[in-house]
Known about the structure:
The protein has helices spanning 22-32, 45-54, 73-83, 98-106, 119-130; strands spanning 14-18, 38-42, 61-65, 89-93, 111-114. By secondary structure, it is α/β, with parallel strands linked by helices. The model has no long low-confidence stretch (mean pLDDT 90).
Amino acid sequence: MIYSNFQIDWKDKKLIIVEDDEASYQYFEALLKKTGIRIVWIKNGLDFMNYVQEEKDPADIIIIDVLIPFKNGIDATRFVKKLYPKIPVIIVTAYASREIREKSFMTGCDAYLTKPVLPHTLLTTLNEFIEAEGVKRFEKS
């Protein structure tokens, strides 16, 4: 496979995937299985916001779809960035447009990917943020 040359050990890392489409979630999960990363799957923006607010250490990194129920990914990103500005948020969408991309970055996302996300692109993007040193992600602002 394209991404088999990655020697990644993220057993001590935690990822939140906010995605209402089960097939998309399963795709991400399958790609990330070999890394050992702990994955929390949340299916809507409201549950995500509640989880982030209640958890002491919510995640090392977040992948969030734009079009999710109850609170969209842009609003949910804005919410998490107010609480935890240093947790990297990667917005993904199948409905790419200049407007959504601009809104995503204006709201504080750290990366923006369009579906379908290629395995190498996903792993490279996650690795860029996970391997960044000296970041205290769980400090609330």
